Amino acid sequence: MKSPFLPISTIALALVAASTLAQSVMERDQPWPIPARIDVSTQKAPAPVPVQRKWTVAMWDFPRFEIDALISAPWRAPLLYESGPQGREVNGIRIYREDDSRVLDWHVYWMTKHGINLILWDWYPHKKPDGTLDCSESINSPLEMAFLGKARTGGEPVATNRFAKAIDFAVMVTDHGPVASPGLPAYIISNFLKQPNYYKVDGKPLVIFWDTQELAKELGGVPQAHKYLDDFRAAARQAGFPGLFLVTIVGNTGMPEEFHINQTKGEGFDGGIGYHYSFAYSGDKREEPDEKQVKRTYIYQDYLAAVIPGHQKVWDLLATSFGNNYLLSITCNQDWRGGRAGGPVTVGRPADLTRMIELGIQTVKDRKLRPFIGLEAWNEFGEGALVEPDIEQGYRWLEAIRDGLQGVAGSPAVEDVK
C-alpha cells in the first residue's frame, strides 16, 4: 500500500538543507545514501543474531522520545515510524511510540547486527512521600513492557522475555530524585535480576546507580548509603545470587575528582562506569541563538583535539583508581543544540568514533581491565547523543561501532583481544 507520508529522501534533504547547524558539525566529504524510512506497522524486523564474543559491548538506552528535541532539531528524526491512527507525528514527520514492541524488535536487531550484546537501561524508580516504591512512570514502559513483555509498567514480574537468547540487559537506578525505598531491592531482584539474560560480572548481577553523591544525600550520609547497599547485597544473596556487582557513574558527566572516587569506595560500590564524559574536557565556547532566538552557550568539542584526549585522561584516572572494576566507557557523540539550554556539541565524523573504540580496546588491554566497552547512547535525543539510525546520518554511527570492533586501521578484532 502506498504510504501517505513524504519519502525519507524528500524530508531529509529539505531538513538538512535548512539546517546549517547540522552541516557545520557533520560536514559531508561526499554524499552518502539516505536509507528509506521503516514503517513498523508493515515491516517486521529480522530476527536478531546473538553476538558470539568474549567481550561485552554495551549500549545505553534512554527510553523516552524527547519531542522538544525533534521540534528544534528535526534532522534527528529516526528511521522508524508508525503509520495508522496510533502513530505519532511531530512537525509533519511520523515517529514511533517508545513502548511499541515492534520498535524494540528493530532496535535489538540493529544492535546485534553491529556487535552490541548488552543494553544498559536508564530506569526511573521513585520513592513516594510515604516511603513506598513507584515504578509506574511511562519512561519505564519500553523496558518493562516492550522488552520484558510485562502486562503493565510497575506490574507483576515475568519469568522470561523474548530477547533472552538474543541480547543481555542491565539497569541503572537513575536516582534523579528519591529512590531508596525499602522495596527497591526486592523489585529489582524479582523483575530484573531473575531474568535469564540479566548481565552478570563474575557471576554477580550488575546494578548501576546514577551518581556517587545522590544516594548518600538522600539517606543522610556515606555510612547510611553503605548500609543500604549492604542490605541490597544481602537480599540478593537470599534470593540465590552470590552477591551484586554495584557500580556508579563516578563524577557524573565531568572529570572525576578525588572526592568522587573516595565517596564511591566509601559507600561500598565495587567500581565505576561512565555515562557520557562531555563535561570532562573543554572546547570552543560560542554564543548562538536557539530555535526561539534565545542566546545559548554551546561548547564545540573537536573529536580528535578534545574528545579522544579527554576520554584517555578519564580512562587512565579511573583505571588507576578502580583497576579492573572500572568498566571502560565511551561518549559516541553529543549535540545539545536541540532541546537543551546550552551544552556540548561534538565536532567529528563516525570514523572518529571508530578510532576511539580502537583506542578503548587498546586501553583495556594495556591496563588489564575487564573486556568491556560501554557506549553512550542509543537514543538520548534531547542531548543529540544517538547512534540509532536517523534520517540525516542513516546507519553511519552504527557502522562506525562495527568497524571499531572489527579492527579498522590495523587494530585487532575484538575476538582476538586477550
Subunit organisation of the chains: single chain
Total strand segments? 21
Radius of gyration: 21 Å
Structural class: alpha/beta
What gap, in angstroms, lies between the N and C termini? Answer: 51 Å
Strand residues, percent: 15-25%
Number of helices: 12
Q: Which consecutive residue ranges, at least 5 long each, have pLDDT under 50?
A: 1-30, 407-418
Shape: globular
Largest sheet descriptor: 10 strands, mixed
Mean pLDDT: 88
Helix content: 25-40%
Report on the architecture of this protein.
The chain has 418 residues and is of the alpha/beta class. The chain contains twelve helices and 21 strands. The strands form six sheets. Strands 2, 6, 9, 10, 11, 12, 13, 16, 17 and 19 form a ten-stranded mixed sheet that branches. A three-stranded mixed sheet has the order 14-15-18. The longest helix has 20 residues, at 303-322. The protein is globular. The model is unreliable at 1-30 and 407-418 (pLDDT under 50).
Secondary structure layout plus pairing:
Elements: H1 8-18, H2 20-25, E1 38-39, E2 56-61, H3 67-72, E3 80-81, E4 88-90, E5 93-95, H4 101-113, E6 118-123, E7 126-127, E8 133-134, H5 141-147, E9 168-173, H6 184-193, E10 200-201, E11 204-209, H7 214-219, H8 222-238, E12 245-249, H9 258-266, E13 271-273, E14 284-289, E15 295-302, H10 303-322, E16 326-327, E17 329-331, E18 343-347, H11 350-367, E19 372-376, E20 379-380, E21 385-386, H12 396-406
Parallel strand pairs: 1-3, 2-6, 2-19, 6-9, 9-11, 11-12, 12-13, 13-16, 15-18, 17-19
Antiparallel strand pairs: 4-5, 7-8, 10-11, 14-15, 20-21
Helix pairs in contact: 4-5, 10-11, 11-12
